[in-house]
Design goal:
- With 239 residues, this protein is α/β, with parallel strands linked by helices.
- 38% of the residues lie in helices and 20% in strands.
- The strands form three sheets. Strands 2-1-3-4-5 form a five-stranded parallel beta sheet, with helices on both faces. It has a four-stranded antiparallel beta sheet with strand order 6-7-8-9, with no helix packed on it. A three-stranded antiparallel beta sheet has the order 10-12-11.
- The longest helix is centred in the C-terminal third of the chain and has 15 residues.
- The chain is globular.
- The chain starts with 7 loop residues before the first strand and ends in a 9-residue tail after the last strand.
């Protein structure tokens, strides 16, 4: 049996067989598992139990996975993986745009399931060697990784776990171009290094939250065909 301090996964699916399949494979990897059979129950359990990850089926009666995801995101930034029998690209993009962290198409193997869950849980945790002092990029943007606080134009802005990791790795390499593959490997995991769509979406999310003008980025620069570069705030102009 998993220990009491093991990571907790909330599985949301209206098919008991699917819940049992997921439970068995995650418990073999020492995760604790709780379940919900509909969207309303899922939102309630997510609020009460504060899981480390949510596995959320898209096709559910009454309140579908997208509606459930929207409700969870109003209260929590816990990592969410969408589960669906569809392979429709529009569904995938819709889920990611609503705040899902990943997407798995049924049927999936136990190995893929466990790998994806471990990856999103890992992404929810910042690296242990985090700068302790708050960072003042300029008068518009301040970042405190230790407290997970971003202040944009004097207002505190919420970032999701994956956004924090992406911002962290960009700022740790301020002034340098970080290749697409490097960012994907460090933020999502090596198995995601070809998933450039994820990176483009999350760069957009970050820019929407921290840039004064999305059309003319001040902080996150695109180096076409190569990667992204965060402005070199560490080198102050002389004079």
């Amino acid at each position: 049996m998993p220990s009491e301090d093991a990571k907790l996964v909330l599985v949301v699916d209206d098919e008991p067989r699917m819940i049992n399949f997921i439970r068995m494979n995650l418990e073999l990897e020492s995760f604790r598992v709780v379940s919900a059979e509909n969207g309303l129950e899922a939102v309630k359990r997510a609020r009460e139990l504060l899981p480390d990850c949510v596995l959320l089926d898209v096709m559910m009666p009454e309140m579908d996975g997208f509606e459930t995801l929207r409700a969870i995101r109003e209260e929590s930034s816990t990592p969410v993986i969408m589960l669906t029998a569809r392979s429709d690209e529009d569904d995938k993009v819709r889920g990611l745009n609503l705040g899902a962290d990943d997407y798995i198409t049924k049927p999936f193997s136990p190995r893929e399931l466990v790998s994806r869950v471990k990856a999103v849980v890992r992404r929810s945790e910042l690296p242990s060697q985090v700068d302790k002092a708050p960072i003042r990029v300029d008068e518009h943007l301040q970042v405190d990784f230790n407290r997970r606080e971003v202040i944009v134009g004097g207002t505190t802005v919420k970032l999701r776990p994956t956004e924090w990791r992406l911002l962290y790795h960009l700022m740790q390499n301020a002034g340098w171009v970080v290749p697409h593959e490097t960012l994907l490997s460090k933020v999502w995991g090596w198995e995601y290094r070809d998933e450039t769509q994820y990176l483009r979406l999350y760069i957009t999310y970050l820019r929407q939250k921290i840039e004064p003008d999305m059309q003319h980025p001040r902080y996150i620069m695109t180096e076409r065909g190569t990667g992204y570069r965060f402005v070199d705030y560490k080198t102050k102009p002389k004079g």
